[in-house]
Amino acid sequence: RAAGTGRGIRDGHLKRVHEPGVKEQVEDMRQTYEPFDPPHCPPTPTPDYPREYPVLDIIKNWNPDDPNYRPDNIYSSLCYFDYSVESDLSAAFAYRDAEVPFVVRGVPDLDDTVMRWADPLYLRKLLKGKEYKVEKSE
Asked: 16: which residues sit within 8 A by CB, 6+ positions away?
């Protein structure tokens, strides 16, 4: 923990070496969608947060049976906070304490984890050639 923060923030992060192109692949996976009605995100959540939408409206907009279709707009009701912005981090802790869902972006420890798991060789390196039985569902 960084001195005095009590938030588990490290003073520094060691970036690992990844296969060429992994960072670009991760960036390509991050798609941004424009919400129909962006949520209002005050420093503490309101009693009606998060906004709810009828499930049939959500399915009509983004059919779960068509994995290739990506709508221009989505139903989004969660607040997003930036880990590196102190006011956002304070708000994230308030939302956590209120036990409501939210998203935190830009967390260095998690970004590094995403990069590791996006590397197709990462799991092979962990398993060191050992094989395991798996079940595949259709």
From this structure: 112, 115, 116
Predicted confidence band at 16 (pLDDT cuts at 50, 70, 90)? very low
Residue 90 has pLDDT above 60, yes or no: yes
The Cα–Cα gap between 132 and 56 comes to: 40
> Does residue 39 contact residue 77 with C-beta atoms inside 8 Å?
yes
Q: Which two tokens stand for residue 54?
A: 């009828």
Q: Rounded CA gap, 41 and 91, in Å?
A: 9
Q: Give the Cα separation of 76 and 96 in Å (integer).
A: 18
Joined tokens for residue 100: 């409501």
The two tokens of residue 44 are 């503490």
What is the per-residue pLDDT across 46-67, written as a single tens digit (0 to 9) for each? 999 999 999 999 999 988 888 7
**Dist CA 52 CA 34 (whole Å):** 17
Say which amino acid occupies 11: D
How far CA 130 is from CA of 124, 125, 126, in Å, comes to 9, 10, 9
Question: Which tokens in the block code for residue 75?
Answer: 């139903």
